[in-house]
Amino acid sequence: MGSRKKAKPSRSRKKAKPSPDQAVALDYVRAWAHPAASAPPPEPSAADAAGDDFLPHQAARMASGGGGSVLFELHSHSNHSDGFLSPSELVERAHRNGVKVLALTDHDTMAGIPEAVSAAHRFGMRIIPGVEISALYSPKEIAGTGEHVHILAYYGMCGPSRFDDLERMLSNIRDGRYLRARNMLAKLDRLKVPIKWEHVTKIAGEGVAPGRLHIARAMVEMGHIENIRQAFNKYIGDDGPAYATGSEPFAETVVQLINRTGGISALAHPWALKNPDAVIRALKGAGLNALEVYRSDGKVDGFSELAEKYDLLKIGGSDFHGRGGKDESDIGTVKLAITTLCSFLKMARPIWCSAMKDILLKFTEEPSTTNLGKMVMFGELINFNGFSSTGSGMDIVNLCLSSWLSNNGMEEVELEELVKSCT
Q1: Exposed, middle or buried: residue 344 (CB in 10 Å: 0-12, 13-18, 19+)?
Q2: Which of 190, 205, 235 is the last residue of a domain?
Q3: What is the pLDDT of residue 380?
């Protein structure tokens, strides 16, 4: 029997030590992401933050109960717009995939946020109240002309500071979606692709403004086309024969409203635009904060340079809808750099704190049941127990502060500023 060569012991690759900036960023992000009300996961070693600046490579371990990663998902949809999962199901799936901070960004509605917040509380997760707003970029601001864009808005745990202003815009967009869907069905009928309105609204669900994805699903179910992609490519894409416009506001107006209501604005999927440079330049002038650059397949060529050109924060997300299949990436697949997450929070937290101050100040001036409902719409209160006294504005403010602070919503310096403003 011939001699056998001894196999060389395998050498595991050494993890590079995190830079000082990475270590500081990791501490900052973890301190915000893990609510004090729930037990934080075990502290990771310094080596856990290593590896090509992406945070960290243990999402699977986190999902099974171990590890200490802080995975953000900044773009997701539920069945309150064109997603397939309820907010609770979406949160559960995100939790299984190791997500600790989830932004629910349904199209033109924030109706799913309260359910998502309630579900996330069970898992010690954070919800960033968000929305993806349909808009129109038109250099000359001529209604019905220009390029359709989607703008993401990210708010703090209390939501928008002027919710009525934002909801008025979103409601107008949703109303326009009903009209647009009917116009699309009329065009499809002329193209010998008949779809019943009742079929589309049933797919969309009660109270959900129908979108193109709902129409595409109806087309598949009726056997007119084989899959959703074909519906867009052949009929209802932006240049398709059955495409119709809605009542979208101008993109600059949307960005300005997000700024006024205490949000962070980001341009979604710029790779879908015909003239991204012109759109980004105009929106930056209106106050745009960030640009989606990362998606499930990594950095998109050219858009990182555009973000740098216009001094925009580079972010990204899976744009998860839950439709299944190979065409969609799972929730939590975009791993943003820890330094990027830190920059995002450092930009957002003062803005969110200011919005919180505006919300609480408005309530002290007018402590009505209506304003109380708006104030606690997105932020779950601990020990609230149905408290609804309208004669004790400061008592309610103090209750909100203690509850939100118990979830580590603000830093010490932010708390001092807020308390002074409300007393």
Answers
A1: buried
A2: 235
A3: 58
